[in-house]
Structure formats: structure tokens, C-alpha cells
Design goal:
This protein is mainly alpha-helical. The chain has 18 helices and no strands. The radius of gyration is 19 Å and the shape is globular.
């Protein structure tokens, strides 16, 4: 019996939440990691993004694997590799080993986002596609919320090892469930990855989408990785800083669905305009957050919510924009290209961002982040705003 679109969406979201426990939730135990492995801010940034770097470098290969071998096989194999990497990370004797095993885990689980997005492109029409991807992307901050609630107490009770083993168990369970319901999802045999990649990169507007994504992921990483250290340095208690991080994650989940619903208006004709709006909200939120850090908890949490609504809510919009620029047979791989830029840039820029914060201070850091968000909004304003070109093929 073929699973319903909503059943596929639930399974894809659950698996993505499990991936995000580490990829986007490991920052919730950043202080514990820094203490256990004696890390400074640049080294902590490297550890917190090693998983993302592993995923980013293998995302396009994952897209090819999903197309060639099917969503089920690629997801189950990737889940096994990702789970094994996390188990190995739990027993890391040193920082280099921790970095390597988190990298391997990210490389394995990279099949899950690609199989999930590709499957949703197939089962949902264009008029509901941004909403569906928004719900699926909501699983990213849901994973972060789960991490914020579960990982610090586990780390306090049994150390970083227990937190990583918990994450490995969730990944094994939810990744396997999604693999079983995702179906095969093959597009065609005899793929030519290099030729298809070249074709995708030459699509009109694709480079503008990728530049926009690169700007916005800098903002997202700044919020996720450095908001808690900034709040603590501003004198906020561990509880208040944790509450702010939890508020960020909850807001991100709501924002992804809200922005997706807005982008689906006018038959999908608001895709680019919605990206512009998210970028400017992030820019204003970044300035507000920089100022609020000087005014105490009552100001920090509302500013963090505004910042997160723009800075953490745009992902599904970029994926839909990239997928709809491509012909239907290349949509999943086009999404993989955009995801590759997002994951790799997020991993590469985070350690230097930590160094900037160390050298220039948090005020300069957050104002610069707001400026990057504004650059992303300006780039999004150059994208076409018409209805999706592939709507008639898939809708």
C-alpha cells in the first residue's frame, strides 16, 4: 500500500529531527564540550560544525545515490553510517577523534534530507510544496528543541558520552522508519552526475539563489552557535541563556511553516518576495539582539525571537526556489546543490566567526551578522517572482 503524502511528511520530519539533534542541537551542550575537551571559541565552532561539514561535502553525492539506488536503500545505509559515527564520537579520546567521527556521522546522514526533500517534491503539488517543505524544515528546530531539553540534563548526569549515545539511538530509530516508508523514488538509470551538475549550475538564477543561501546560512550559524555564549558573556544565567536558546528553536519551527505558507500564496508566485521579507526581518532582529544583550533577560528573549523568525525561517524557501528553477528530473539534485552550499558554508565560516567574536566583541559580531542578512535580502530581491516553472509538470 502506497503511503499517504502526509504519512511521508511525518516520517521525513521525524528523521530530519533526529539528524538535527546533532547537526543543529549540539550547541546546547557547547559549554560541556568546551570543558571536557578544553576548547576555545574557534575550536568549539569547529566541533559544532564538523557534522554539518561532513554532510555538506557529501550532499550532492547523496542526491545521486538517492536517484540511482532509491530513497529507501540510500536512507537505510546512510542511517547506519550516521549512527555508527555518533556511537564512535561518544567514546572519543581526543578532540581530533571527536571531529572525525562527527564528520563521518554527518556524511552518512546526508541522505536523509535529500531523500526527504525529493520525496516531498514528488508527492505534493506546487501549490502546497513550500508549506510541506516548511513543515519538514520545522523538524530542524524541533530537533534543536529536543536537544535543548534533553542533551544538557543527560550531559550533566553522564557526560557528553550519554548525550551522543541518546542522539545515536534516536537517529537509528527515526531514520529507519523514514527509510521504510520513503519508497524507491528512482528517477532514471544511467545518470551522468558531472553533466547534470553543470546543467544545474548554469540554470538562470541558480547562482543568485546560492549566494542568497550563503548569506542566510552565515546568519543562521551565528544565531545557533553563538547566541548562548553571547548571552552568558552578557551576564545572563545558564537558565536564562538556555531559555533564550529554546525560544530560538521554537520560533524557528513556527517561522518555517509561516514563511512556507506565505510563499505558497499566488500559486507560488511569492517565493522570492518571501525570501526578501525573511532577510530584512533577520537584519532588524540582529540589530535588536545586539542592543538587547545590554538590557537584561526581559529584552534578550523578545529580541532573540524576532532574530530567529527571520534568520532561522528561510531554509525551505531556498530549497523550493532551487528545485523549481530546474526541470522536474533534476529538481532533487538542484536542491542537493543548494543544500551543499548551505552545509559547507555553515561549517567553513563558523570557526572564523568565533575568532571574530573573540577579537572584536559581541556588538561588532551581531551588527555584522545583521549586515550579512541585509545582503541576503538584497540578493533575494534580484530573483524572479513568477509562479513555479515546474508547477504544471508536477502539480
Amino acid at each position: 500500500m502506497r503511503p499517504s503524502p502526509r504519512g511521508v511528511l511525518v516520517a521525513a520530519a521525524g528523521a530530519q529531527a533526529a539528524v538535527s539533534l546533532i547537526g543543529f542541537g549540539l550547541a546546547s551542550i557547547g559549554p560541556e564540550l568546551a570543558e571536557e575537551f578544553d576548547l576555545g571559541l574557534p575550536e568549539l565552532g569547529a566541533v559544532l560544525t564538523a557534522n554539518l561539514l561532513g554532510g555538506g561535502l557529501f550532499l550532492y553525492a547523496a542526491g545521486v545515490a538517492v536517484d540511482r539506488f532509491g530513497s529507501r536503500a540510500a536512507t537505510l545505509v546512510g542511517t547506519a553510517i550516521g549512527t555508527g559515527g555518533l556511537v564512535a564520537a561518544a567514546f572519543s579520546p581526543s578532540t581530533p577523534w571527536l571531529l572525525a567521527t562527527l564528520f563521518v556521522s554527518g556524511a552518512g546522514t546526508t541522505t536523509i534530507p535529500i531523500a526527504g526533500i525529493g520525496t516531498l517534491f514528488r508527492v505534493f503539488p506546487a501549490s502546497r510544496r513550500a508549506w510541506a517543505l516548511g513543515v519538514r524544515q520545522m523538524a530542524v528546530p524541533v530537533g534543536g528543541v529536543t536537544a535543548a531539553v534533553a542533551l544538557p540534563p543527560l550531559a550533566h548526569a553522564g557526560g557528553v558520552r550519554v548525550s551522543l549515545l541518546f542522539s545515536a539511538g534516536m537517529l537509528a530509530l527515526l531514520g529507519t522508519v523514514f527509510g521504510l516508508v520513503a519508497g524507491e523514488g528512482r528517477l532514471a538509470a544511467g545518470l551522468r552526475p558531472k553533466a547534470e551538475l553543470r546543467r544545474i549550475l548554469l540554470l538562470p538564477g541558480m547562482w543568485r539563489v546560492l549566494v542568497c543561501a550563503a548569506c542566510f546560512i552565515v546568519v543562521l550559524q551565528a544565531i545557533l552557535v553563538f547566541s548562548v555564549p553571547a548571552a552568558r558573556d552578557a551576564g545572563l544565567s545558564r537558565f536564562t541563556a538556555g531559555a533564550a536558546f529554546l525560544a530560538l528553536q521554537i520560533t524557528a519551527g513556527v517561522a518555517r511553516v509561516v514563511w512556507g505558507r506565505i510563499a505558497d500564496l499566488e500559486g507560488g508566485g511569492r517565493r522570492a518576495r518571501t525570501l526578501v521579507e525573511a532577510g530584512w526581518v533577520a537584519a532588524v532582529g540582529g540589530v535588536a539582539f545586539a542592543l538587547a544583550l545590554h538590557d537584561g533577560p526581559a529584552a534578550v528573549i523578545p529580541a532573540a525571537i524576532l532574530f530567529a523568525f527571520g534568520g532561522l525561517g528561510w531554509n525551505a524557501l531556498v530549497y523550493v526556489q532551487a528545485g523549481e528553477l530546474a526541470p522536474s528530473q533534476l529538481a532533487a539534485q538542484a536542491v542537493a546543490v543548494a543544500a551543499t552550499v548551505i552545509f559547507v558554508v555553515s561549517a567553513v565560516v563558523t570557526p572564523p566567526m568565533g575568532a571574530i567574536a573573540d577579537a572584536a566583541g559581541w556588538d561588532v559580531f551581531w551588527l555584522a551578522t545583521a549586515g550579512v542578512a541585509a545582503c541576503g535580502a538584497l540578493m533575494a530581491g534580484t530573483l524572479r517572482t513568477g509562479a513555479p516553472a515546474v508547477a504544471s509538470e508536477r502539480g
